[in-house]
Amino acid sequence: MSRIVTYSPSHTLVPTYECFNRCSYCNFRRDLGTDGWLSLDKAKEILTALQGSEITEILILSGEVHPLAANRELWFRHIYNLAALALNMGFYPHTNAGILTFAEMEKLKNVNLSMGIMLEQMTVTLLNTVHR
Questions:
Q1: Which of 27, 62, 109, 117 is deepest in the core (most CB within 10 A)?
Q2: Spatial separation of the C-alpha atoms in residues 76 and 65, rounded to whole Å
Q3: Mind giving me the DSSP string for 41-97?
Q4: Model pLDDT for residues 52-88, shown as the tens digit of each residue
Q5: pLDDT of 16-53, one tens digit each?
Q6: Does the reported pTM lie above 0.90?
Q7: Within 13 Å, how many C-alpha atoms sit on residue 120's CB side?
Q8: Maximal C-alpha separation, the chain
């Protein structure tokens, strides 16, 4: 039996590093109110520079906005718009923005070839340890 391993050259866009979580292992996050959001204009500039390169996949990796936060819908719409921009420019978007509702995932599937979730968000044991 042969196993085939494939690789997609990628670039990561980070809408924001701000995150309400305080994972014990994370050096990615910034405190709320300390990081601006990546603008669509700046994202378009980055993606334009990547066109014609070997990059095919755009990873959209974001800090998390609390599900009940007032700016949750704005944050989600921004992630959606980044993915739509990447797709419209010929890239394959892959979003990993933490815990999303089923309705949010339903919307994102229209502009993403794939989506991810970090495994520590899947069990109560890990939620009570590294992802408090």
A1: 62
A2: 9
A3: HHHHHHHHHHTTSS--EEEEE-PPPPTT-TTHHHHHHHHHHHHHHHHHTT-EEEEE-
A4: 999 999 999 888 888 888 889 999 999 999 999 999 9
A5: 877 766 666 666 666 667 667 899 999 999 999 999 99
A6: no
A7: 13
A8: 52
Beta bridge partners, 11, equal: 58
Torsion angles phi and psi, residue 41, rounded to 5: -65, -45
Q: How many residues does this entry show for the chain?
A: 132
Name beta bridge partners: 13: 60
DSSP 115: E
Please tell me whether residue 114 adopts helix, strand or coil conformation.
strand
Task: For residue 6, give Cα distances in angstroms to 1, 3, 75.
Answer: 16, 10, 32
Distance in angstroms (rounded) separating the CA atoms of residues 46 and 75: 20
